[in-house]
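<given_protein>
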Amino acid sequence: MNNTKWLLFCIPVLLIFLGISVAKADSNEKVYDFTVSPSKSLFNITNFKPGDWAERELTLDNNGTKDLQYEIKMKHPSGEDRLFRQLLLKVENESQVLFDGKLKDFKGVDAQQLKSGAQDNIKFTVKMPEELGNEYQGTTTQFDLLIYVDGDLTGIVGNGFSGGRLPNTGLNDPFYFLLAGTGLITAGTFLLLFKKLKGARVQG
């Protein structure tokens, strides 16, 4: 009889103890645990010249216990619109190209599913078109990538570019054309004099 009473007392206590332990374990597991790397700045490029390009990768991790949905939006807060309108951008993940065009036309990455324990890597490539000249030297532009998880803003990743100057080569230095023209004129003059002198000797 005493044993029965003892069991009736111990069983509820044991169940309460197990319930507290399970609840504590569940509370230690984060439902939302989403990280972005790098978290502050993706591009910080100076002396960006026509023909230059830069590539960076944004890593998004879902370490929580719940599947989630994220999206990326672009915001252009400051800087000269002139350079911003000219830069080219390509965005791609491990399976497809998400965007390929002018930076000014990029609106963001549409909602993507990210399962618990999964990781997404998104590659951003920015290029300054080769046909641009030195008029973009010293111009700057900035834009932010806004990271949303299940509709809530969870991170802002900054980006900055400043234009540089092309080297003074024969392709873009006006002095080269002047020098080349002078050389051609001089060479032509000597050639004509040489022909005249040669003709005079034959006649003599």
